[in-house]
Sequence to fold (819 residues):
Amino acid sequence: MTLANSSSNSEAIQKLQPTGWMKYISFSLDHKVIGLQYLVCGFIFYLIGGALAGAIRIELTTPISDFMPRDVYNQVLTLHGTIMIFLWIVPVVNGAFGNYLIPFYVGARDMAFPRLNAVAFWLIPPAGLMLISSYFITGAAESGWTAYPPLSITSPAAGQIIWIISVLLLGGSSIFGGINFIATILKLRQPNLKLMQLPMYCWAMLGTSILVVLSTPVLAGTLILLSFDIVAHTGFFNPSLGGNVIVYQHLFWFYSHPAVYIMVLPAFGLVSEILPVHCRKPLFGYTTMVYSIMAIVILGLVVWAHHMFTSGTPPWMRLFFTIATSFIAVPTGIKFFNWVATLWGGKISLNSAVLFSCGFIINFVLGGITGVALAQVPFDVHVHDTYFVVAHFHYIVYGGSVFVIFSSIYHWYPKFTGRMLNETLGRFHFLLTFIGFNLCFAPQHWLGLNGMPRRVAEYDPNFAFINQISSLGALLMAISTLPFLWNIIWSAFNGGIAGDNPWNALTPEWLTSSPPPIENWEGNAPLVTEPYGYGTINQEDLVEPTPESPSEESSQ
Amino acid sequence: MGLLFGGLWIGQNINLLPLGASANAPIYDELFKVLLTIGTILFLGMVVLVVYSLIRFRRRPGQTGDGAAIEGNLSLEILWTAIPAIVVLFVGLYSYDIYERMGGMQPLNHHANDASSHEHFNSGNGRIWGGIGSSSLATPQQSAAIPIDVTAMQFAFLFHYPKGDFISGELHLPKNQPVTLRMESKDVIHAFWVPEFRLKQDVIPGQPTILNFTPTKTGRYPIICAELCGPYHGGMRSTVVVEGAEEYQDWLLSNTKVSTSEK
Fold:
């Protein structure tokens, strides 16, 4: 194989690379460094996006527009959506954990295209900074993250163009990452490792990357046409020049519905890695899990028009998209039952990682149920574009993906840093986040049903009390990041030493030191054909190197 | 069992919706009750399963070793492929039925069913494709429908009554009379939403849309723009006044006079 060549070659390259903390702000080619770059960069943008969400919730504590000017409010909600999707969730569930874990899982020493990988990451900070700086220079885009024309054509052009360029860069980064993951999973796999022996996260990333590669270019093309409409006064989407505004919506949602699965499928994969380790049980129904992922990939590509039931969509289209959307519930349902079956009969360590994963299951089930309801045309025509939808998708992307990101950080932090996180702070973080999140978003279902549209700065005074409850929840969510931040910073220096494999896990990233060496393993890469062989593989072989059983309270 | 009854009770007794004031609102509420019942049962069931597993199978202090090495169970997996499949199938068929019934009384799918909307962008297309709703249209009702032209702009709705040839900023409708709104936008996309009618339709520049319904309860209800349309989107509201036939005629006449005298 070319592994030997590339490893000697990369050794030479490694000598030119900075070491120590400097490597994290360098053009490093190490997939682990790039993964952590994605994670930290994404988290910084999460804090910014969260601050914007806070501003929105402050504005909405009163029924009148009094906290910020109305156009600034629209800029804030546009930035909030764009940052959370394109700079936090997509880069972190794909880029961060994908880069860190996928080479381990396939038994490789790096990604297939390390330079492309570094380019993909380094597109993100400039794109993000440009997007945010547009607020200070010209005023940010104010047509929402959906940028529907003609509003996006008629609102101030500079901010909208900067928004388009940022999203194009971020989309490019995403496509580079997707190509890299597909190549790595399919081509850098160890010769004796079969596809059906891969950890579930590999399957999730394979499915996600297929979606990324198929659908992101459509968004890019659409946004380029939109930018022509803005700067060159073409008429693709401009009705006053004979354009068609609905075509934009079709093209936009052709990417942006799969984008939901780009945010959620990797999260499904991560949960499938975390739960078996802490339940000490094999992942239940591996084969059906794989087929479910692929079914979601295929169905996910043909459901986009359910965002457009009130856009004058023809009836046959409504029927088709209702059916297709509803049926996504089947593979998704299988996955959730399989996770519960993984819990059932296990010996579950009730640590922060498991709590966040189970919080994810509960939140996502609620988001999924409201999702099936929203897929029904007669139901949707009432609640479309209301706070019911806002509640629904925050249950999916926050209650789903973000809970999983936290769970994954608790699970893999010992591998990233070699130190354990504080469990007490972790559980406190979970409790605050879970209560705050549900307090913030559950009441919004009621708001939507009773007449509060989304993206408004002012509303019917009858809704003030419920909005205040929701804002209180948002405050709790903001506070909940403090113990987390303290925990990850303090533990990096003072946390208990983790050892190679604090959870006694069987997946390959744990069969090396923490943090792992540059080439991932000192010797040959281990061939792991049973990543979930709990209960069958002899534990004593694995337990010996670690001094104590760290499944609980190991960090105290 | 308790779960089942709990879900049924919540579905039947918890009212999360505003007052219903159109002929399709009761049908909508029926659908909502069914969805709420099924959703509550599934959600509570899942919560109970997760919480029970976490408590029952938690690792006790001093406990070591692994759980049972169960890698799967075909019949269980078939069972929980079947559960969501059956639920989804039932919900789909049921909502299709609801959709038909709504379409039968007040067509939601404006494309296929309004023969008079010759200017309508998609009407011919819709009739070819649309087996849904279009065939169930009650034509006599359609001819009796009051036509009103709605123009949306940043940041207001204007209602033009062809009968008196005047424009109003408030929508007045007679009770129990079918109405046809022909809507078009002058600038960006807006949406016409009356929560009490359980209806929403985007108002699109360059592509007229239609909304048919029958108001059934007198009162004043908010008309809300539901599509982000600019800085004052949150303030883009109007009122629909549903009144008795006589008041409506009086209102119509008084406005007609004003507009003719202006001419």
In short: Chain A has a mean pLDDT of 91.
